[in-house]
Amino acid sequence: MPNGFNHENSSSNTMQHIKSISLAIVLLASVLYVPSCKLTGAKKNSNSSSSSPTKVLDQTPDGRLVEELTTSYLNKTPARAVATQLTVEQAQALQDQFVQQLSSSLGNVVGYKAGLTNPAAQERFKVSEPIRGVLLEKMLLKSGAVIPAKFGTRPVYEGDLMVRVGSEEINSATTPREALAALDAVIPFMELPDLVYDPKVSLDGTALAAINVGARLGVLGTPIPLSATPDWEERLKNIKIVIVDKAGNELAVGKSSALLGNPLQVVLWLKDSLKASGKVLKKGDLLSLGSMTPLATVKPGTTIRAQYIGLDPKGKVELSVSFE
After folding, report:
1. How wide is the angle at C-alpha 123 spanned by C-alphas 119 and 128, nearest 5°?
2. Most buried pick, 4, 166, 254, 316, via CB within 10 A?
3. What angle (nearest 5°) sits at the alpha carbon of residue 132, between those of residues 129 and 133?
4. Domain boundaries, the chain
5. pLDDT tens string for the chain (324 positions)?
6. Helices (H), the chain
7. Under CATH, what is the fold of the domain 108-323?
8. In terms of pTM, does the model score above 0.90?
9. How far apart are CA 305 and CA 104, in angstroms?
10. Distance CA 266, CA 248 (A)
11. 277: helix, coil or strand?
């Protein structure tokens, strides 16, 4: 075989080898690129387009997740997509986008809620502190409300406690007494959360934070005026709640000491958490301080009543909700 042919063939093989290496590098780079948060359970659809009003959301996996969570929430269908390995900051960013999507149908922000406010719940959901969410205007109902039993994807109820901000001095409070001085009312509150995700989805605290800590509905009682006295400071730590059915049968029991040992500590935590995100509390903001009772499943055709003992100096306080 002539030497010229061998040289020409060798050059051709070398060029092909270089092209193969270049292609391999490109493919490797595309495989190594991954988003900052891992998505599991999401359905892939290359032809789908986001309806998000924010262009950034349209271009990111986070935006697709927010869109799916929002669709599941509004349609009351189980969400099968969940973000894992999130930092608290990433979960909060997802929540902000989720709430933005909901606000057009549920109204303006009227307050905030704390979740996982006891050590047992934090351990279960693998977090070291509470998580917070946002309360929107149309989420809040008056005592005596009658609502569908299927008010959410996975509807539950719990005995809660709410306070109302009376002064923006709350933002500089550092002690329970200072926090109390910046509040003007305590409100009996039965929250009606929605766990949103499919029951088969394994949840942690950040996944719960991403869905706005399950905020869906809640029933408010009559506001009770607060004053910054030792009596009120002690009273708030020693409230008992009993949830009963229409016949008076006990369904759940809890105490306000379940709220970080003192509901006013939850107020301080919420203030600090919001401040860390560049937000401040304002007069009139409502603060849901967390669950005093275990979560319970909603049953159609029932009425439940939450009785608060030790909350009002005038006597027992009660509120109710009925499920169709």
Report:
1. 75
2. 254
3. 160
4. 1-33, 108-323
5. 444 434 444 444 444 444 444 444 333 333 333 334 445 554 434 333 333 333 333 334 578 899 999 999 999 999 998 876 788 899 999 999 999 999 999 999 999 999 999 888 899 898 999 999 999 999 999 999 999 999 999 999 999 999 999 999 999 999 999 999 999 999 999 999 999 999 999 889 999 999 999 999 999 999 999 999 999 999 999 999 999 999 999 999 999 999 999 999 999 999 999 999 999 999 999 999 999 999 999 999 999 999 999 999 999 899 999 999
6. 3-32, 55-58, 61-75, 88-106, 119-124, 176-181, 205-210, 230-236, 263-276
7. Fumarylacetoacetate hydrolase; domain 2 (3.90.850)
8. no
9. 31
10. 31
11. coil
The DSSP letter of residue 182 is T
**Residues 271, 183: contact at Cβ < 8 Å?**
no
**Residue position matching structure tokens 């047992």:** 120
Quick one: which H or E segment has residue 217? strand 217-220
d(CA 200, CA 188): 33
What is the identity of the amino acid at 98? F
